[in-house]
Amino acid sequence: MLVNKTYRVIPFQPSHVQDVVTGEGRVLSPAKFGDVGKHPAFSVYHGDTYLMSGGVVAAAAWWGTAWLILNSAEACKHLTFIVRNVRRYLTQLQHQGMHRIEATCFTGTPNGGRLLKALGFELECEMALAGPRGETGERYVRLQWPIQSQLPQSR
What we know:
By secondary structure, this protein is an alpha+beta fold. The chain has helices spanning 72-75, 79-95, 112-118; strands spanning 7-11, 41-46, 49-60, 63-70, 100-106, 122-127, 137-143. The longest helix has 17 residues, at 79-95. The N and C termini lie far apart (35 Å).
């Protein structure tokens, strides 16, 4: 994975999020990530400071659901790097045939929609009572069209 002078992008391990506290003050448990490691996923560090983890869980070869966990206190200082590289990662997945990638954010994450738009997602719909505590959710989608396999082949 990517390594430069200050950032490390490495394959995701559930232990990476052991000490991350969510915006609601809850500590995430590595046990909640079960089979995520079977899908494309990564973590980003700045020096020894954890910034984020993210990936896409494939529902089918052409369709996946994106997930992202940010260390909010630190990630906001490095948004340019994060957005640029997550967009690159999503584009790479789409060139490999995953032409629909979905992501959902809830009313408890007011900047979630802005971040998803910066990552190239567009609002698809609002979903009433979609969150674990009855929050309204917003589903965003990132599409690549036409599908690469449907393009005419040059001779």
